[in-house]
Write a structure and sequence with these properties.
By secondary structure, this protein is mainly α. The chain has one domain. The chain is 70% helix and 1% strand. The chain contains 17 helices and two strands. The chain has helices at 2-19, 23-40, 46-52, 56-66, 76-105, 110-115, 124-129, 143-158, 163-180, 195-211, 218-239, 253-269, 271-274, 278-285, 287-308, 319-343, 352-359; strands at 242-243, 248-249. The protein has a two-stranded antiparallel sheet with strand order 1-2. A hairpin with a 4-residue loop joins strand 1 (242-243) and strand 2. The longest helix has 30 residues, at 76-105. It starts with a helix and ends with a helix.
């Protein structure tokens, strides 16, 4: 009996350890979402977008794969239900919030020139297809169906193949895809045209999460990150602008892949240092909320700026505006998180019990 009790205690301890949050991963996710928010802000320098876009979306796919270990024992039905609750429900909810705002404001100011003649029902095609450019009422939402499809495909492949095999097999496919598919001028529903690239980085994350130990020392991790900084800068800058949502991968497929891997490695190596920031840890725990809210805040603030005449004809927002609106959008998520968790946790893919625990 004592042996059985001891084994049960060990299993419980192992389960707690497996599901415990790693603050370094939270901080890495916080860095990634901060780069996403800044990259979407009007007025941010073009140089920033070239560097940040070279790796921030691959970093999100990689971190999602890193955390996939928690779900590897699910059945197909359980996995699909979890993905629908945590990704599809927020996708639909925040789409309709953005769609409502678009309907109310599309005849105002400069928007009337662009959207005034657009049929009211046209944006709904973006919701149904999940195609990034058609989600213009809320451009950031493209990532949710992309992650859903990627996680689901990896789940089924992972039942038969090791993460290393999936990463190795998906690498040449991703390289060929980035070189050939964009020229076709086609877009596939629910981010299937992004899947080969996303799957590679997701598999890399799943492999790294099982084989790689993040540095515990901020000094050691920071020093290792600095070693990779120069080659990443060269690769990212020479490859040019990347925008995975728009199927833009820069001038070279191999530079795109290497720059993305180096950029993600730098963030992961520097994660012990980033984990010292409570703000980054909080942002990393609330990436879904920030992703879905920040564009809505940008739209409202841009509309207010236009009405107040903050930017006269011929002038454009600058870096100060980009930093200001980014800070406001992230800060607004603090009260919104409390409201959603208390009154509508399903908006954030949470169950009621989990939401109450998160509030305490």
């Amino acid at each position: 009996m004592a042996a059985v009790t001891g084994m049960a205690a060990q299993k419980r301890a192992g389960a707690i350890e497996a599901t415990a949050r790693d603050t370094r991963i939270d901080a890495a996710k916080g860095v990634a979402i901060a780069l996403v928010v800044l990259g979407h802000a009007k007025g941010i320098p073009a140089e920033f977008t070239v560097l940040a876009y070279s790796f921030h979306v691959p970093l999100f796919f990689l971190l999602s794969g890193w955390l996939s270990l928690r779900r590897n024992a699910d059945t197909a039905v359980q996995r699909l239900a979890t993905l629908a609750r945590t990704l599809l429900v927020p996708y639909v909810f925040f789409f309709f919030v953005a769609y409502g705002y678009w309907l109310l404001t599309r005849q105002v100011g400069e928007k009337a020139l662009r959207w005034g003649q657009t049929p009211w029902w046209e944006p709904l095609g973006g919701l149904v297809t999940g195609i990034g450019p058609r989600l213009y009422v809320h451009p950031a939402l493209w990532f949710l169906p992309a992650l859903l499809v990627t996680a689901l495909v990896y789940f089924f492949l992972g039942k038969r193949l090791r993460p290393s095999a999936i990463a190795l097999l998906s690498l040449p496919l991703a390289m060929l895809w980035t070189m050939a598919f964009p020229a076709a001028g086609l877009r596939l529903p629910f981010a299937l045209d992004i899947l080969p690239v996303a799957l590679f980085f997701y598999a890399c994350g799943a492999l790294a999460g099982r084989t790689v130990s993040l540095p515990r020392s901020a000094l050691t991790g920071g020093a290792a990150a600095m070693v990779l900084l120069v080659p990443w800068l060269w690769l990212a800058w020479s490859n040019g602008r990347v925008d995975i949502n728009q199927l833009r991968f820069g001038a070279s497929a191999w530079k795109f892949v290497l720059a993305a891997l180096l950029g993600t490695s730098i963030v992961l190596l520097a994660s012990p240092l980033a984990a010292k920031s409570a703000a980054l840890r909080w942002m990393g725990r609330n990436t879904l909320l920030i992703l879905c809210v920040h564009m809505l805040v940008f739209f409202v603030l841009s509309g207010m700026a236009a009405v107040l005449g903050l930017f006269p004809a011929g002038s454009k927002p600058g870096p100060a505006w980009a930093l200001c609106v980014s800070g406001i959008s992230i800060a607004s998520c603090v009260p919104l998180r409390h409201l959603f968790l208390r009154y509508a946790p399903w908006v954030l893919g949470q169950r009621a019990a989990g939401a109450q625990a998160a509030l305490r």
